[in-house]
Amino acid sequence: MEVLGSLIETYGYYGIFIALVLGIVGLPIPDELLLTFVGYNIFISRMTWSGSLFAALLGSLMGITISYLLGIKLGVPFLKKYGPKFHITEKRIQITASYFSRYGGWLLTFGYFLPGIRHVTAYMAGISNFKFGKFAFFAYLGSLIWVHTFILLGFTLGNNWTIVSEVEGYFHNVGIVALILVGVALFVFLYIRRRRKKLGH
Question: What is the value of pTM for the model shown?
Answer without folding.
Answer: 0.72
